[in-house]
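Structure tokens please, single chain.
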Amino acid sequence: IVNKFPKSDEFEQAFFNLGKLYWEEEKYQRSRDTFTELINSKVSKRTKLDARYYLALNQLELKNYDQALQESRELLKDEVDPANFPKIELLIARSLANLKKTEKAAELFQKIIDENKRSKVAAQAYFYWGEMHFQITHDYEAAIEKYNQVQNQDRNSEFVEKAVSKSSVASQIIQYYHPDRTLDIETLVDQQFKLAEFYLQNLQQPDSALVVYNDIIQRKELIGAELDSLQAQLDSLHLAHPFLTETISSDSTLTTVVADSSVILPEDSTEVYIDTLSFTLTQDSLNTLPADSVKIDSTTAASDSVARKNAVIDSLQTKFTELQNQISQKQKEYKIYQDICIPHANFLKVWIYDKVKHDSTTADSLTRYLEQNYPENKYTRACRQLLNNQKIEFGTEEEQQLNEYHQAMQHLEENYSKTIELLENIASDSTHRFYQKALYALGHIQYFIREDTLAAKPYWKQILAMEDNEWKDEVQKFFDGKKFIKEDRLQAIKEAMAAEQAASDSAKVMLDSTKTVVDSMNATAKNLSALQDSTKLYSDSVKIQKPDSINTLNPAIADTLGNSENNLPLPTTKPNQNE
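Here you go.
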């Protein structure tokens, strides 16, 4: 189309696509030549501006950073569509970064991100910001932080895979070459787990994920070798200079050692120094010297010798301390790999073999390896749960058992039958951390809530039969092993019943009194009825007062009875609960 149909409607777009195709094939010079020719053709201003973007981009790819920066800045001035500003600014930031103007580049990266949050260009900005730290400043921890943001800005970005991969590489560089890092080992290893996850979920490449998991597992052996090497250096230093063990704990000891003229350093540590006390005096030189000059020079020489020996000791002391710190750091890393990283990686391998590759033999073999070497680890239990098609619980066994007990007790007020059912499960396992507590709770519920002594007895009997049981004293308050101590239990109930009886008696007295008043009023009314003609008004007033008097008394009676109805307090015990 470009060559044969220069006047066609498709010419302009075809010409542009040709230059872009060369760029995608990484033929940057041919791409630049094509776009240069396009700009010199009769095409629209919009197409020329778009072509100029690729001209600057090709300069960047060709590592002509000064030209890329200049062309990008000129394009930003001429661009008329604000939607294109961010991608041009990104070219400027990348050019600045490659010209080692990293502070200005960082400011521009941040500006692009702030003005275009959760967008494709923001993801690109984070990626190239990470690239700046990875390739130019070699701040690998900062690079990891930026790479991690790419997916947060645009999950579908073409840079996600690159960012995850680069982040993993950065984490390995830090582990191998930067023992003074500030990022903890778990954060670094997490980058490798993310890489494996990306292979598995985004690229559907389980074999690549397995390779990453194997690298994580093998890292433990490398750390072990590094630890052995550091320990050998420390032992060698200690054997050569045994006084370092003493000086490391006390500055005063160091002062004593240095001041002691009898200290003799090994030859290999002092051979580079000249003994300033060794010199030759001729008779002529003695004749020309003042009488005390030899004494002065000897004193100066001795002082200089001590100073040099102190310098040697300080240097050795520093090396000794550095080795100790490195060993301590490696020991922590080794433990994290041993307790967390390796079991975790093996669990994920089991998942892949079982769910993706459907290789139950390998999955079971890995699980048995974990059970033999990491029997108490949460990932070991999770592997067995996975293979048994059970719900996977990643908590420790202790955490799971605590959760089981809490789940049982949370139903107590609304549905104690559910609580009994769940506690029965706990009480059926004598190895359960809450076995004894579950037995006590079951007896407590049966005795105090259900008032079923027959059902409570077997639970509390088991409690009393145990020699070491924190709940035994509580049980013995109500049960002696044969019979229940009912008096203690019913005392509160008796008091409640007595209070109810007293209230009932009081109400009866009030009712009798009311009845007497009413009878008297009725009698009066009956007597007065004979005098109806003359006393009709009086009689009516009495009839009106009669119901009011009764209604005044009834609420008091009702309140008294209501206070005791269905309100019998049951005794409860609250033993000290350590859980």
